Amino acid sequence: MKYLIWLVIAVAVVVWFQRAKKSMTAGAASAPDREGAGRNPFARRRNENKQQAEAMVQCAHCGIHFPASESVSSAAGAVFCSEEHLRLASS
Ligand SMILES: [Zn+2]
Questions:
Q1: Neighbours of 71 (CB within 10 A)
Q2: For 80, which of 8, 28, 70, 85 could close a Cys bridge (C-beta 3.0–4.6 Å)?
Q3: Nearest 5 degrees, angle CA 52-CA 57-CA 62?
Q4: What's the 29 CA to ligand 1 centre distance in angstroms?
Q5: How many angstroms is it from 54 CA to the middle of ligand 1?
Q6: Rounded-to-integer distance, Cα 8 and Cα 6, Å
Q7: For 9-13, what is the mean pLDDT?
Q8: Which value, to the nearest 10 degrees, does the dihedral of the CA atoms of residues 11, 13, 15, 19 take?
Q9: In 26-65, which positions are buried (b, 16+ CB within 10 angstroms) versus exposed (e)?
Q10: Domain for residue 43, yes or no?
Q11: For the segment 61-85, what is each residue's pLDDT rounded down to a tens digit?
Q12: Distance 71 CA to ligand 1 centre (A)
């Protein structure tokens, strides 16, 4: 039982060391980046936005730009911002 406790402590120390080493190397590698993204919350937010950025498409009827996931496309392949503009363009 005594050995089990020491084993748990040893594993905890090893895990802690590996985490510390990982965060240290990550910090060194991204040192110039950290200045922009780490300390500046706006820069970090911009990076997150870039990752979540979605393709923008233009409505064939009114010309507004909007995310592709919200688009309504006609049988001909034209993209519209709403069902109404699809109907207006096809009529
Ligand atoms: Zn439209």
A1: 19
A2: 85
A3: 135
A4: 46
A5: 18
A6: 5
A7: 88
A8: 180
A9: eeeeeeeeeeebeeeeeeeeeeeeeeeeeeebebbbeeee
A10: yes
A11: 999 999 999 999 998 999 999 999 9
A12: 9
Split into its structural domains, the chain has a count of 1
The C-alpha atoms of residue 73 and residue 83 are separated, in whole angstroms, by 9
Return the higher-pLDDT residue of 35 and 73: 73
- 22 part of a folded domain: no
Q: Is residue 10 in some structural domain?
A: no
From the CA of 48, how far away is ligand 1's center (Å)?
Answer: 28
In a domain, 3, yes or no: no
33 is in which domain, residue-wise?
Answer: 27-90
Distance from Cα 86 to the centre of ligand 1, integer Å: 8
The two tokens of residue 91 are 């009529």
